[in-house]
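From the methods appendix. Each design record in this collection lists the tokenized structure first, followed by the designed amino acid sequence. Records were kept in a plain field format so they could be parsed without special tools. The example shown here is representative of the layout used throughout.

RECORD:
FOLD TOKENS (960 positions):
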């Protein structure tokens, strides 16, 4: 079937029709001869894309040429899902079977108001998700017993790495030794080893609970609490000893257990990390899940990632926003302390709302139920003659059955329960929220014990927790955690928050570099199926056959589309994919005896995470200049290559460039790096401007990361989840990520994320996107995106200069509008234009990146012509408003732009004293019945940074 046949998905995904694109081509000034058989997209692509890079090569040899219908794709996904066996997962190791409240699944996970939103950089239109993230931070801080939490991490293992790096920065100088608890989660230890080696940290593993002495010199230590073995012990003595040695104590804690046992903060911890997966987030074969990090006072400015804070708006009303944004990698580049530039917002919102829905009493009841079932099983196994290793328990047991462990695990598997084979003599058992009495019966039978006939009465004393570890202080005392017990109330709360926000379900989000395209409902459907949601990441290979087949197909398709030989889907964010690719290059050079190759050349226009990732991979950053057209300055590049020839490890370059143009010298650039012995890393952020026309591997790339949340339609979810696979040529394949628990064994450097396949639970989305589009549809999507960007640039260039263009005066999939002349002429800033766009019903384009004082616009292929015209018309109208300011008709300090955005209250409450009308304020040209009302006026960012508050404020703070 053609990608554009009746009912074909591609025609639903791509917003403009062939007739629309003919009109758009005319607007760009391109003229087609009468005998030219190319369609409009073909004419424009030939003008925009340099001939030297054109041609698919073998692209698509294994990618289906034609897409399938939505019904056919769902049927194929059902067939894959049926190959996964949904058993009761009692493996543990930081992953627990949980129950997602239906009201949260339907109104958050499956709701486009939440999953199509972008990172809340524009706080005035993000108040709902910012409030939800503030709930998350408050939940984490309360349970961990420390005051400052961030808005989520990628997973527990990478959160532990970031905790290690925070500790190193806090100590500053001295020792390079970091102690790791022998009872830490094994995947956490594996990720720590990979990351520590790259930055010169020496890991020392010790049995901390067993009394091993700390080394004389260290900068920190990681304690698992409770331990991976299930051991519940008091780490306060170890924490004190770490402090005496001059180090920082990092505690990896089970957040649900902290409803019953003393908080790490109360025991002296400096940093607490972990996962919130068991707060209602499905297992999903390992992710996505929201990790967390919380720190003591004094470390808040060392926190990686994003932090939601409280400020005020122009009317003095309370307003939320992202705090301390100067820590963002796009600004700090090689001086950044972390390469994390995303979060797991959608999953953090789910976890926070799980706590809101259940409240402190409900969470304690869930934890108590888990603990009591675990204690009951402990006693029954002990009474039956088994040796239970630990007496004090929360949710995990280790049971010694010399020489019989594999048989016990096999018998339980046959009964439908997954246990953990610790070693030949030891079985691990973890109880979760969803564990049933029948599951416990199967476990008992696996150990050869008779059915004991149900539960017996038990109390929390049966957990046998050390007296000093029983939690006695209150948590989750804020009213939000007590107000929404009924489904009606919870549903309405989630709706109120969603109504405050602007997401793709309201209108266009024209963010350059971010690709806010359609996230199809059909592609989203499968992530809620239990056959994908309830699979443990360490399940036996035979129980995850459907996942493994889907992963293999998706990796094959991505390799074909990029021109590479191997793909790893493990990195669970673009930044982690960058890091994995650079670690592969580092490993390759070292395998050849070239340990001295440690210089990474990075153009000044590059994404900020490039430089941060290079530093975290143990490389030295050398910046390469760009010319006035936005291209890499070839003269400067050659000079830098010559200056660092013996030490050159890699060049990182984005293609098309971060400036939104196709550089015609890319082949020469790659050749120059290769001639000097370096490797070429092509950042895949802009792959959506190449698919079907050129491949990174054919342009000289040795390795790239891809952003599935950009090119392949995984939702941004308000700032995450993301997926950042890394793809490489054959000579780098053995240096890609591997994992000790992977079902499909691979050579590699070790893991860069906690789960073998990263955020596998959302991979069905990209699988469905590629399957429904087919190569023809993917190519048409590229064409439509480039046509849309050139149409917008052509219509706006007489009003706002287009800063960069390729040789033919064409842009790629995005364009940069220069607002600096407007500022010089009228005094109106890029911020004023961005906020005024809210009144017109738009999310602003990307502000001041990669060039200060500009807007980067990316219209994507999924917007229709009417929406593109609505945006263009709004920008033209705003230009006219600015001219009225420049002409003196409106004062510079009182006009619709500097006062934007306008709330409903601002135009109906009190006297109207402005020189423009109320109607112009809130119903400017083109705004109709679908008016979006921002909940707050312009937020004062500086005030919030001076008065940092990052937990839920009391209710009276919201009073007028």
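DESIGN:
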């Amino acid at each position: 079937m053609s990608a554009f046949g009746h009912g074909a998905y591609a025609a639903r995904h791509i917003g403009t029709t062939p007739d629309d694109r003919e009109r758009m081509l005319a607007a760009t000034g391109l003229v087609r001869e009468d005998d030219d058989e190319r369609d409009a997209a073909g004419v424009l692509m030939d003008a925009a894309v340099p001939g030297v890079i054109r041609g698919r090569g073998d692209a698509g040899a294994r990618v289906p040429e034609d897409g399938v219908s939505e019904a056919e794709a769902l049927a194929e996904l059902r067939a894959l899902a049926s190959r996964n066996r949904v058993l009761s997962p009692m493996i543990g190791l930081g992953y627990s079977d949980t129950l997602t409240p239906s009201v949260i699944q339907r109104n958050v996970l499956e709701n486009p108001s939440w999953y199509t939103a972008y990172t809340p950089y524009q706080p005035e239109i993000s108040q709902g998700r910012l409030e939800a993230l503030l709930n998350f931070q408050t939940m984490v801080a309360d349970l961990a017993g420390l005051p400052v939490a961030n808005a989520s991490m990628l997973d527990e293992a990478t959160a532990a790495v970031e905790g290690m790096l925070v500790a190193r920065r806090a100590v500053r100088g001295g020792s390079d030794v970091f102690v790791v608890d022998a009872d830490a989660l094994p995947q956490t230890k594996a990720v720590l080893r990979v990351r520590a080696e790259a930055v010169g940290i020496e890991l020392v593993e010790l049995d901390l609970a067993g009394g091993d002495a700390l080394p004389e010199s260290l900068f920190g230590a990681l304690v698992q609490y409770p331990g991976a073995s299930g051991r519940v012990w008091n780490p306060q003595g170890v924490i004190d000893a770490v402090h005496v040695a001059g180090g920082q104590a990092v505690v990896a804690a089970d957040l649900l257990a902290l409803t019953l046992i003393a908080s790490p903060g109360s025991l002296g911890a400096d940093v607490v990390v972990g996962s919130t997966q068991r707060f209602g987030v499905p297992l999903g074969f390992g992710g996505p899940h929201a990790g967390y990090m919380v720190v003591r006072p004094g470390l808040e400015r060392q926190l990686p990632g994003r932090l939601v804070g409280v400020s005020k708006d122009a009317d003095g009303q309370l307003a939320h926003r992202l705090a301390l944004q100067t820590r963002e990698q796009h600004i700090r580049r090689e001086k950044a302390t972390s390469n994390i530039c995303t979060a797991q917002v959608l999953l953090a919102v789910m976890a926070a709302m799980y706590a809101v829905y259940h409240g402190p009493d409900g969470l304690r009841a869930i934890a108590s139920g888990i603990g009591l079932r675990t204690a009951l099983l402990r006693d029954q196994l002990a009474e039956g003659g088994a040796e239970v290793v630990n007496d004090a328990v929360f949710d995990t047991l280790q049971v010694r059955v010399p020489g019989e462990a594999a048989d016990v695990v096999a018998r339980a598997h046959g009964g439908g329960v997954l246990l953990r084979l610790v070693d030949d003599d030891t079985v691990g058992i973890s109880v979760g929220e969803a564990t049933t009495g029948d599951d416990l019966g199967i476990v008992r039978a696996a150990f050869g014990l008779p059915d004991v006939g149900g539960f017996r009465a038990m109390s929390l004393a049966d957990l046998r927790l050390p007296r000093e570890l029983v939690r006695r202080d209150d948590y989750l005392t804020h009213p939000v955690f007590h107000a929404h017990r009924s489904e009606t109330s919870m549903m309405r709360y989630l709706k109120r928050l969603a109504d405050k926000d602007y997401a793709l379900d309201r209108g266009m989000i024209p963010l350059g570099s971010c690709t806010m395209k359609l996230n199809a409902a059909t592609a989203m459907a499968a992530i809620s199926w239990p056959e994908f949601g309830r699979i443990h990441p360490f399940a036996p290979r035979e129980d995850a056959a459907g996942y493994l087949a889907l992963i293999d197909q998706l990796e094959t398709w991505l390799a074909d589309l990029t021109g590479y030989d191997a793909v790893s889907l493990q990195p669970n964010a673009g930044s982690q994919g960058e890091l994995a690719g650079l670690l592969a290059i580092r490993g390759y050079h070292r395998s050849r005896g070239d340990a001295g190759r440690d210089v990474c050349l990075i153009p000044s226009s590059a994404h900020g995470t490039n430089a941060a990732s290079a530093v975290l991979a143990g490389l030295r950053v050398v910046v390469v200049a760009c010319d006035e057209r936005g291209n890499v300055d070839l003269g400067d590049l050659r000079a830098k290559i010559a200056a660092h020839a013996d030490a050159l490890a890699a060049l990182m370059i984005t293609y098309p460039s971060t400036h939104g143009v196709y550089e015609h010298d890319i082949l020469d650039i790659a050749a120059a790096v290769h001639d000097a012995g370096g490797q070429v890393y092509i950042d895949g952020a802009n792959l959506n401007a190449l698919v079907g026309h050129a491949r990174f591997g054919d342009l000289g790339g040795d390795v790239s990361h891809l952003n599935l949340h950009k090119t392949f339609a995984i939702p941004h979810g308000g700032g995450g989840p993301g997926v950042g696979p890394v793809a490489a040529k054959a000579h780098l394949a053995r240096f890609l990520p591997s994992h000790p628990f992977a079902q499909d064994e691979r050579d590699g450097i070790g893991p860069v994320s906690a789960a073998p396949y990263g955020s596998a639970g959302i991979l069905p989305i990209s699988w469905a996107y590629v399957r429904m589009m087919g190569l023809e549809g993917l190519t048409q999507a590229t064409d439509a995106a480039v046509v849309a960007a050139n149409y917008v640039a052509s219509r706006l260039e007489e009003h706002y200069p287009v800063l960069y263009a390729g040789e033919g005066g064409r842009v790629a999939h995005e364009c940069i509008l220069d607002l600096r002349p407007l500022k010089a002429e009228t005094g109106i800033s890029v911020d004023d234009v961005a906020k005024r766009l809210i009144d017109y019903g738009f999310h602003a384009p990307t502000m001041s990146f990669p060039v200060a004082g500009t807007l980067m616009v990316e219209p994507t292929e999924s917007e229709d012509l009417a929406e593109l015209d609505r945006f263009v018309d709004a920008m033209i109208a705003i230009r006219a408003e600015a001219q009225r300011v420049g002409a003196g008709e409106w004062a510079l300090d009182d006009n619709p732009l500097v006062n934007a955005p306008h709330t409903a209250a601002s135009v109906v409450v009190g006297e109207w004293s402005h020189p423009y009308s109320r109607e112009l304020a809130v119903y400017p040209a083109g705004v109709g019945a679908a008016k979006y009302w921002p909940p707050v006026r312009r937020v004062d960012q500086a005030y919030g940074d001076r008065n940092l508050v990052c937990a839920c404020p009391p209710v009276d703070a919201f009073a007028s």
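APPENDIX NOTE: The mean pLDDT is 94.
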